[in-house]
Design a protein that fits this description.
Elements: E1 13-17, H1 23-30, E2 38-40, E3 52-54
Parallel strand pairs: 1-2
Antiparallel strand pairs: 1-3
The structure holds zinc ion.
Zinc ion binds near residues 5 and 57.
């Protein structure tokens, strides 16, 4: 299922990854086909963190 940015309606959406990523995940992220799909965030997780980030306009949702 493709996410759509609520701000610019773009489909170039990155998944935000909260917390400490595993080595396996980092390998996955480094792959060419996964470039731009993920963004790493800090370890501070709150209850209403956004799950996705738009690569076009930077909107988080
Ligand atoms: Zn956008």
């Amino acid at each position: 299922m493709r996410k759509i940015c609520p701000h610019c309606k773009g489909k170039n959406i990155a998944r935000l990854v909260w917390g400490l990523p595993t080595c396996k995940f980092l390998e996955e992220m480094d792959k060419e086909e996964n470039k731009g799909k993920y963004q790493l965030r800090g370890c501070c997780v709150s209850s209403n963190d956004p799950d996705y980030c738009c690569n076009d306009c930077g909107e988080e949702f």
